[in-house]
Amino acid sequence: MPSDSAPLGTPSKVTQGSPGFPAQGGIGESTLRPDGTLKVTGEFAYSSDLWHEDMLWGQILRSTVAHAEIVSIDTGEALAQPGVHAVMTYDDLPTEVRNYGLEIQDTPVLAHGKVRHHGEPVAIVAADHPETARRAAAKIKVEYRELPVITDEASATAPGAVLVHENRADHHISHVPHPNILHRQPIIRGDADEAAKGADVIVKGEYHFGMQDQAFLGPESGLAVPEEDGGVHLYIATQWLHSDLRQIAPVLGLPENKVRMTLAGVGGAFGGREDLSMQIHACLLALRTGRPVKIVYNRFESFFGHVHRHPARLYYEHGATSEGKLTHVKCRIVLDGGAYASASPAVVGNASSLGIGPYAVDDVDIEAIAVYTNNPPCGAMRGFGAVQACFAYEAQMDKVARRLGMDPVAFRKLNAMEQGTVMPTGQPVDSPAPVAELLRRVEAMPLPPERQWESSEGVDVRQLPGGLSNTSHGEGVVRGVGYAVGIKNVGFSEGFDDYSTARVRMEVVGGEPVAVVHTAMAEVGQGGVTVHAQIARTELGVAQVTIHPADTRVGSAGSTSASRQTYVTGGAVKNSCELVREKVLDLGRRRFGTHHPAWAAAELLLEGGKVVTDGGEVLADLVDVLGDEAVEVEAEWRHRPTEPFDPRTGQGNGHVQYSFAAHRAVVEVDTELGLVKVIELACAQDVGKALNPLSVVGQIQGGTAQGLGIAVMEEIIVDPKTAKVRNPSFTDYLIPTILDTPTIPVDVLELADDHAPYGLRGVGEAPTLSSTPAVLAAIRDATGLELNRTPVRPEHLTGTA
């Protein structure tokens, strides 16, 4: 199949500033997203909409048990079904490389010898119709011999425990005390035991954080097209094209230049697309059959096809003086990593290094571990380890304040970190850390009116707990207010070579100077394509900017995760634009000569399609400077380096940047029925510099809503006896709808980080941290209950749990 035979639904270049898309502004202006209208009207092409005239449909057979030996697999009946073109199991894989993984290659492409979690891929089928493929997969006979399941730390580390992975040989094994412990990171600074002797109050707590699904709207999907040179072109919804490429090519036995990848339309991600899902399976079937193969998960499959947020057990001890100063913090964080490693080591690193929150404490003793179990694999999700820790340490801060008889906000302000504070890892915070100011701002916001469900026209049940189910008219409803603040790192940490690449081209098209920006950044809804155009307009002075579809024909942009893309890929676009600008100016010097002294001056600028001096003197029009030439630069850009945490003490400059957000939650609780209505979730957040203020507010509100979900409704339920998922659907796994989403006023603070492009600070994750504990704090305020787990269920509020 020739490479230029693109399937229907393939993304095309978007020119911002062309007819039908009026020119928007530069950095600091609220610009509209080029894909916004298309998504609202249903015209946007997602990866599940891809179509090729002669394509086949792929289907995956998944295990029905969580832990078992595979005794036999019989594919005969499936192969005999009319319309089936291929059936593949582990034995049919083309190379000796049969595992993959983000950090540790412990995940088999197809199960071999045994299955380790409910829903693990066992076989794949290609057929000429999706229903034929599903029926064929159902006819594959797999005989299992079930094994004991490991479901928590106790069963994982018990004497004689079954090993989830029998032959571990990875670089983390030396750091852990048991083969079923995937990773361990202590953080030790000062002497917490000695400091505890000076505490007037010591508060302990145990907390449980539930397993959360990313709940993105577009299930996993993609289309693999075989190429004439023996390679394959994969059109895929992912978060990191080059990471996928690195894992896919060895399994296929192909060099990376024969595995071409183009980003298809992505319907959300939130970490759930960092790991591979159907990528290798679609490519294997396409190469086996010589036909394009499309795979689209249904929602049931999607719950098994991607990782989830780690459930956690968290054990905390805080000490404080009678005046309210924290003396020490001790904590132990146990994350359930599930059957395969995914991003668990990095999640452990974040949970431990951010485990005491945005507070100044000299003496800390932290341990975080991730455990291998037979539960569903867990990995990246928005907030990435810091979310679980924030839930626990903020609950502790409220408890300590209550024991001291202090206002919880005043207690937090008294202990708030600031620029110059030394983190538990020994790393100084060298950019603004306005924790106390954010708390002050969110506390100062006007509270919503009392009993707002009442009006002259009667009771509006939509504003009451239970909503349109009409369970209450205000009887037994109590209001509560709660606060929380969190800290989240930005970018990849612990010595990871975190960089991005951007190719920028400047030329004259139709009598106007135009910039073309090409990166491999995955646009998953965060609005990066808009920001890239804003950067190009700001740096190059052009009105029209074309954003090239993301693919692997340009260098890696890294993952769209860790709140890093605007920082790192935005930094790469800025860097490449600056290099293009220098080349354009050099072209102008050569074309017009150096008779004008300003051509040699360093202050030359490009503004509004003209070359001007810093004083505004126009030297030439860019059309005249460029003529029929094009100037193009592709360059990598890196932020300042980080270093690994010491495996024994956790010391090290492990993070690039920190972001901070504070929330105030207002809830109303029907204490008789156990129902909660979140009325408002006000947020104050420092964003460094709002490159696109409209988009920034949207990111903050979106993250806030996800924190609301895990507070009061979202949890994947895993049977503790069988390790099977009990609610893999949006019928039984609940996510907030518009009726559940409260008012979310946002106060944006802009304190520039001098180390970052334009002074910006990553935005998307921080509000997910503090919104959850703020809601729990408000419910505690309304009910007086302890409430040490998420999500809060009605039985926890009525005493029937």
UniProtKB/TrEMBL annotation:
Residues 1-34 are annotated as: Disordered. Pfam families: Ald_Xan_dh_C (PF01315), MoCoBD_1 (PF02738), MoCoBD_2 (PF20256). InterPro entries: Ald_Oxase/Xan_DH_a/b, Ald_Oxase/Xan_DH_a/b_sf, Ald_Oxase/xanthine_DH-like, AldOxase/xan_DH_MoCoBD1, AldOxase/xan_DH_MoCoBD2, AldOxase/xan_DH_Mopterin-bd_sf. Residues 41-148 form the Aldehyde oxidase/xanthine dehydrogenase a/b hammerhead domain. GO terms for molecular function: iron ion binding; oxidoreductase activity. Gene3D superfamilies: Aldehyde oxidase/xanthine dehydrogenase, a/b hammerhead, Aldehyde oxidase/xanthine dehydrogenase, molybdopterin binding domain. This is Xanthine dehydrogenase family protein molybdopterin-binding subunit. It comes from Streptomyces sp. R39.
